[in-house]
Specification:
about 475 residues, two-stranded antiparallel sheet, about 10% strand
Length: about 475
């Protein structure tokens, strides 16, 4: 009898043990997060379903299917999504009707009479105007859950919710700030990235600068930074400031283009030489410039991506700001060429250079194109600003060109060489770059990568944007009228 009672007691303890252990091991944070996620599941699923249904109505069946599957992942009992995916309710279970599912369209389809370009345009519009807002709405739900987790002391779950929100809306400012990220240019950086960037961009004195000293036949001051070995006979403090300005341009460019700002775009350090006399400039070009020396001799700067060199003139009487501007402009061109081979696309190369120098410095005075100084920059105003341009100076010029119908057609810009690219054309390129970075930075990067391998730029642009060159021009003009 006693043994039977003992066995019954043991069986009872074993039966209770799992639930007891679960109760002891349950993480309050996990329970809180799960309850919160379940609490908004139907709301999130309905929001995503609207995007799926909109895709279905636009015959974008591949997108509709993907989003419908996402809906039932959020809310397994979502009837509309289940019906669309050909599931039938059998008691408490959903079972797939394989015959119906086999007939479900799986590809995005053109409407009658539409071209592939028309389909591409519809796909982009759905992603930008339907899916992105749906994702942003769900991201807000996760952001609120993360905030509640944080307020209740569940830090791990708070971080998880914030990361989920960012996966849906990478530019969610409140979440980024809660994670301690800082915005630099058009992207968010972690604190570690910010510290590393600041440390890497701080030039330090170089111990050995004999190479450029011998080349220039003078005593030089030299500094080294993350991307440069810079030297010249100017004071070290000035060379340091000029080099820091170039590093800032690189950081803006890399972060905007989705690259780690702490990883150099170059295979080795760039040699940057500041020549204080015409004699130094001639000596440097004689060795570093393999051809067209006479052409570059009269210019203020020179770069060569093949050997990673930049030369900038800083003769007596040239203001420090002008030297810094020329160095920054030249740096932007070097990055363009190394990353995307844009030296073969003068319009885009110049547009990118203007965009990033203005972003990093706020003003610019450099030019690589045919120009009329009276058109290029301010002739009046204070002596400090005379000859300098700003974004607020460029925008009205571009708008006026559009209003008068005087802007060069984009198709014509594609074939222009640097010496044929006039000031107005370069401003259109600058505005085009700003338009793309403002509206869809990731897609612009894909365009740059596609152009690098392209043999026909017009065809590449039309395929990428899903519209003709003329329609692309009109889309850009509409942007100018809205924003300039």
């Amino acid at each position: 009898m006693r043994s039977l009672a003992s066995l019954l007691l043991l069986a009872l303890l074993l039966a209770l043990a799992p639930s007891t252990l679960l109760a002891q091991d349950a993480d309050p944070g996990e329970s809180f997060y799960a309850e919160g996620e379940n609490g908004f599941a139907k709301k999130a699923a309905n929001r995503v379903w609207k995007a799926a249904d909109a895709a279905r109505k636009k015959t974008l069946y591949a997108y509709a299917r993907t989003q419908a599957e996402r809906v039932i992942g959020i809310d397994p009992g979502h009837k509309k999504a289940r019906d669309y995916l050909c599931y039938e309710r059998k008691g408490r279970e959903w079972r797939l009707d394989e015959k119906k599912a086999a007939r479900l369209p799986r590809k995005n389809e053109r409407a009658q009479g539409q071209t592939a370009a028309d389909l591409g345009k519809r796909e982009r519009e759905w992603r930008d105007k339907v899916l992105a807002p749906a994702n942003a709405a769900v991201a807000d739900l996760y952001a609120k859950l993360a905030q509640q987790c944080a307020l209740n002391g569940h830090s791990e779950q708070a971080k998880r919710g914030r990361l989920k929100a960012l996966s849906l809306n990478p530019d969610h400012a409140a979440v980024r700030k809660a994670l301690g990220h800082e915005k630099f240019g058009g992207v968010w950086l972690t604190k570690a990235q910010v510290r590393a960037r600041k440390s890497a961009s701080q030039p330090v004195r170089m111990k050995d600068s004999s190479d450029l000293a011998d080349l220039l036949d003078t005593r030089v001051n030299a500094v080294e930074s993350a991307n440069f070995r810079a030297a010249g006979s100017a004071p070290e403090v000035r060379i340091t400031d000029w080099t820091k300005g170039c590093e800032t341009v690189i950081t803006y460019m890399l972060t905007d283009l989705g690259r780690d700002p702490n990883e150099s775009p170059f295979r080795s350090k760039v040699e940057m030489c500041f020549s204080s006399t015409m004699k130094q400039w001639d000596r440097w070009l004689e060795v570093r410039c393999p051809r067209n020396r006479d052409f570059f001799r009269k210019h203020s700067f020179y770069r060569l991506p093949a050997t990673l060199v930049i030369g900038v003139r800083n003769e007596s009487g040239v203001p420090d700001a002008q030297v810094a501007d020329n160095a920054a402009h030249c740096t932007a061109h070097l990055v363009n060429e190394v990353l995307f081979g844009l030296n073969r696309r003068a319009w885009l190369d110049e547009g990118m250079a203007y965009h990033y120098v203005l972003r990093a410095r706020g003003t610019t005075k450099s030019y690589c194109v045919s120009h009329d100084p009276r058109k290029y920059a301010h002739e009046g105003g204070s002596d400090e600003m005379k000859g300098w341009s700003t974004e607020s100076f460029f925008k009205p010029i571009v708008r006026q060109l559009v209003e008068k119908g005087d802007d060069a057609p984009l198709r014509a810009l594609l074939t222009k060489k640097p010496q044929d690219l006039d000031f107005e054309a370069s401003l259109k390129a600058w505005s085009f770059v700003g338009w793309q970075l403002d509206t869809d930075r990731d897609e612009f990067v894909k365009l740059l990568e596609s152009l690098r391998a392209s043999g026909d730029d017009a065809e590449t642009l039309q395929k990428h944007f899903g519209m003709s060159m003329e329609d692309l021009d009109n889309a850009w003009r509409a942007y100018v009228r809205r924003t300039h």
